[in-house]
């Protein structure tokens, strides 16, 4: 059924019959051969394969059977459709479907205040293939709350005080304060609102800390994978601008005005557009917001 993808769809010996199963993934047990056998009593075809098992695996007798009742489970069907939709949007960023599958199956670290399902989405967002590496790092450290901010550094004896370096701000500089609660951060989120509001579903998700910093929240399920990619890229360049200007203030005592921060955001968005278009792929992520066009307020 997917004739162009060698190695994932098996055909009968004469090459005329394709498997009714689109893909079979085996973890750490690569198949060495496979055959399809017609069944006279059914319109199905039996798949037989030999797996190369790693050393130390206990092998038992019997046949593996697919649990067809799962095809009637609404939650399973919905999750599969969401996963496949994500793959269709992001496939240009992976070398193979198997690479995407393995990355998506990584163990999930808990995130305080979030469910396991939400935590999985957080780490999936942090490793989003459309992100530049520094934005992946920033998302990962923000989710772990291990950015080298003053409050954390002070608690380890590596900073003189925990106070936010912004003029007139006397609150402890935590990750949440830096990226969301500080006046400088709030001003930039407000100034760049037209860029990310146009990516949100109308009347759906409300921008808040979890959505802006972690990429999870109510209403996001109404977004297609393509629309979420557009939103997530926008949120990450805003966080990058906040973090970069803060480091200029701390390291070089340079205060970057709000207008210049906004220009940095629009410039990075244009850079994303150029990078994505330059891949020569199918262009499924072209809806990165045009930085020079304001959306709905």
UniProtKB/TrEMBL annotation:
Instruction: Say yes or no: keyword Nucleotidyltransferase present.
Output: yes
Q: What GO molecular function annotation could you give as one example from this UniProt entry? A: RNA-directed DNA polymerase activity
Where in the numbering of this chain does the Reverse transcriptase zinc-binding domain appear? 117-189
Range of residues in the leader sequence: none
Which keywords does this chain's UniProt record carry?
A: Nucleotidyltransferase, RNA-directed DNA polymerase, Transferase
Designated name of the protein? Reverse transcriptase
Organism from which the protein derives: Labeo rohita
């Amino acid at each position: 059924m997917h004739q162009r993808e060698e190695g994932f769809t098996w055909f009968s010996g004469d090459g005329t019959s394709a498997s009714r199963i689109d893909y079979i993934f085996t973890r750490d047990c690569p198949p060495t051969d496979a055959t399809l056998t017609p069944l006279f009593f059914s319109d199905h075809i039996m798949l037989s394969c030999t797996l190369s098992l790693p050393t130390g695996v206990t092998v038992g007798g019997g046949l593996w059977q697919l649990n067809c009742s799962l095809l009637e489970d609404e939650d399973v069907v919905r999750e599969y459709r969401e996963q496949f939709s994500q793959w269709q949007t992001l496939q240009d960023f992976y070398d193979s479907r198997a690479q995407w599958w393995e990355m998506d199956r990584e163990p999930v670290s808990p995130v305080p205040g979030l469910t396991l399902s939400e935590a999985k989405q957080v780490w999936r967002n942090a490793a989003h293939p459309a992100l530049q590496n520094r934005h992946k790092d920033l998302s990962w450290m923000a989710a772990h709350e291990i950015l080298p901010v003053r409050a954390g550094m002070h608690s380890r004896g590596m900073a003189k005080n925990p106070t936010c370096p912004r003029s007139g701000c006397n609150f402890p500089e935590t990750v949440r304060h830096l990226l969301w609660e500080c006046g400088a951060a709030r001003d930039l989120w407000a100034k760049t609102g037209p860029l990310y509001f146009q990516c949100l579903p109308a009347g759906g998700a409300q921008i808040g800390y979890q959505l802006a910093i972690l990429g999870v929240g109510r209403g996001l399920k109404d977004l297609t994978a393509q629309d979420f990619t557009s939103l997530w890229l926008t949120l990450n360049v805003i966080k990058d601008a906040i973090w970069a200007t803060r480091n200029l203030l701390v390291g070089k005592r340079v205060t970057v005005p709000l207008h210049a921060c906004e220009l940095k955001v629009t410039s990075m968005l244009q850079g994303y557009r150029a990078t994505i278009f330059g891949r020569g792929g199918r262009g499924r992520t072209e809806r990165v917001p045009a930085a020079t066009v304001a959306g709905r307020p």
